[in-house]
What does this fold into?
Amino acid sequence: MMKKLFLCAGLVMSMAGCGNLLTHTVYHQPQSPEGRVCTSQCYNAQQQCRNQMEAQRKECETQHRYAMEAFKHCKDSAGKDCREPPACSYPSYYRCDNDYKACFGACGGTMEVLPGL
It folds into this structure.
Protein backbone atom coordinates (compact mmCIF):
# COMPACT_ATOMS: atom_id res chain seq x y z
CA MET A 1 0.00 0.00 0.00
CA MET A 2 2.79 2.39 0.93
CA LYS A 3 4.58 1.56 -2.32
CA LYS A 4 1.49 2.55 -4.33
CA LEU A 5 1.21 5.79 -2.40
CA PHE A 6 4.82 6.74 -3.23
CA LEU A 7 4.27 5.83 -6.88
CA CYS A 8 1.17 8.03 -7.07
CA ALA A 9 2.92 10.90 -5.32
CA GLY A 10 5.86 10.64 -7.70
CA LEU A 11 3.56 10.60 -10.69
CA VAL A 12 1.67 13.69 -9.51
CA MET A 13 4.92 15.53 -8.81
CA SER A 14 6.35 14.68 -12.23
CA MET A 15 3.15 15.77 -13.96
CA ALA A 16 3.20 19.08 -12.12
CA GLY A 17 6.44 19.95 -13.88
CA CYS A 18 4.87 19.30 -17.28
CA GLY A 19 2.29 22.07 -16.96
CA ASN A 20 4.59 24.59 -18.59
CA LEU A 21 5.06 22.45 -21.70
CA LEU A 22 1.66 23.42 -23.09
CA THR A 23 1.99 26.67 -24.99
CA HIS A 24 0.57 28.29 -28.07
CA THR A 25 1.90 30.97 -30.35
CA VAL A 26 0.02 34.13 -31.27
CA TYR A 27 1.13 35.65 -34.57
CA HIS A 28 0.96 39.43 -34.98
CA GLN A 29 0.91 40.57 -38.60
CA PRO A 30 3.24 43.37 -39.68
CA GLN A 31 1.60 46.77 -40.15
CA SER A 32 2.78 47.41 -43.71
CA PRO A 33 0.87 46.03 -46.70
CA GLU A 34 4.17 44.67 -48.07
CA GLY A 35 4.79 42.82 -44.81
CA ARG A 36 1.32 41.29 -44.94
CA VAL A 37 1.84 40.12 -48.52
CA CYS A 38 5.16 38.66 -47.41
CA THR A 39 3.61 36.73 -44.49
CA SER A 40 0.90 35.49 -46.85
CA GLN A 41 3.65 34.04 -49.04
CA CYS A 42 5.18 32.43 -45.93
CA TYR A 43 1.84 30.80 -45.16
CA ASN A 44 1.49 29.52 -48.72
CA ALA A 45 4.99 28.01 -48.56
CA GLN A 46 4.14 26.35 -45.23
CA GLN A 47 0.97 24.84 -46.68
CA GLN A 48 2.84 23.62 -49.74
CA CYS A 49 5.45 21.99 -47.48
CA ARG A 50 2.75 20.29 -45.39
CA ASN A 51 0.87 19.12 -48.50
CA GLN A 52 4.06 17.65 -49.92
CA MET A 53 4.75 15.76 -46.71
CA GLU A 54 1.17 14.48 -46.62
CA ALA A 55 1.46 13.29 -50.23
CA GLN A 56 4.66 11.43 -49.33
CA ARG A 57 2.87 9.78 -46.39
CA LYS A 58 -0.01 8.66 -48.62
CA GLU A 59 2.41 7.28 -51.22
CA CYS A 60 4.25 5.37 -48.50
CA GLU A 61 0.99 3.89 -47.23
CA THR A 62 0.03 2.79 -50.75
CA GLN A 63 3.43 1.14 -51.26
CA HIS A 64 3.17 -0.44 -47.81
CA ARG A 65 -0.20 -1.99 -48.68
CA TYR A 66 1.29 -3.60 -51.79
CA ALA A 67 4.30 -4.80 -49.85
CA MET A 68 2.04 -6.29 -47.14
CA GLU A 69 0.05 -8.15 -49.80
CA ALA A 70 3.28 -9.61 -51.18
CA PHE A 71 4.41 -10.50 -47.66
CA LYS A 72 1.12 -12.29 -46.90
CA HIS A 73 1.29 -14.13 -50.22
CA CYS A 74 4.84 -15.20 -49.41
CA LYS A 75 3.80 -16.49 -45.97
CA ASP A 76 0.73 -18.27 -47.38
CA SER A 77 2.92 -20.09 -49.88
CA ALA A 78 5.26 -21.20 -47.07
CA GLY A 79 8.12 -19.00 -48.22
CA LYS A 80 11.23 -19.04 -46.07
CA ASP A 81 12.56 -15.54 -46.74
CA CYS A 82 9.36 -13.58 -46.13
CA ARG A 83 10.08 -10.20 -44.60
CA GLU A 84 7.38 -7.97 -43.25
CA PRO A 85 7.80 -4.45 -44.62
CA PRO A 86 8.42 -1.65 -42.11
CA ALA A 87 5.52 0.63 -41.32
CA CYS A 88 5.44 4.16 -42.65
CA SER A 89 6.38 6.92 -40.30
CA TYR A 90 4.03 9.82 -39.93
CA PRO A 91 5.34 13.15 -41.08
CA SER A 92 6.66 15.71 -38.68
CA TYR A 93 5.73 19.20 -39.75
CA TYR A 94 8.49 20.63 -37.57
CA ARG A 95 10.58 21.85 -40.52
CA CYS A 96 7.58 23.37 -42.29
CA ASP A 97 6.51 25.19 -39.14
CA ASN A 98 10.01 26.40 -38.25
CA ASP A 99 10.55 27.69 -41.78
CA TYR A 100 7.21 29.51 -41.51
CA LYS A 101 8.18 31.13 -38.21
CA ALA A 102 11.53 32.28 -39.61
CA CYS A 103 9.85 33.64 -42.75
CA PHE A 104 7.08 35.34 -40.73
CA GLY A 105 9.66 37.08 -38.55
CA ALA A 106 11.75 38.11 -41.56
CA CYS A 107 8.64 39.76 -43.02
CA GLY A 108 8.29 41.94 -39.92
CA GLY A 109 5.72 39.84 -38.08
CA THR A 110 6.11 39.10 -34.40
CA MET A 111 5.26 36.00 -32.41
CA GLU A 112 4.21 35.70 -28.82
CA VAL A 113 4.43 32.35 -27.02
CA LEU A 114 1.75 32.07 -24.33
CA PRO A 115 1.16 29.36 -21.74
CA GLY A 116 -1.76 26.99 -22.01
CA LEU A 117 -4.04 26.25 -24.91
Summary: The beta strands are 23-28, 110-115.
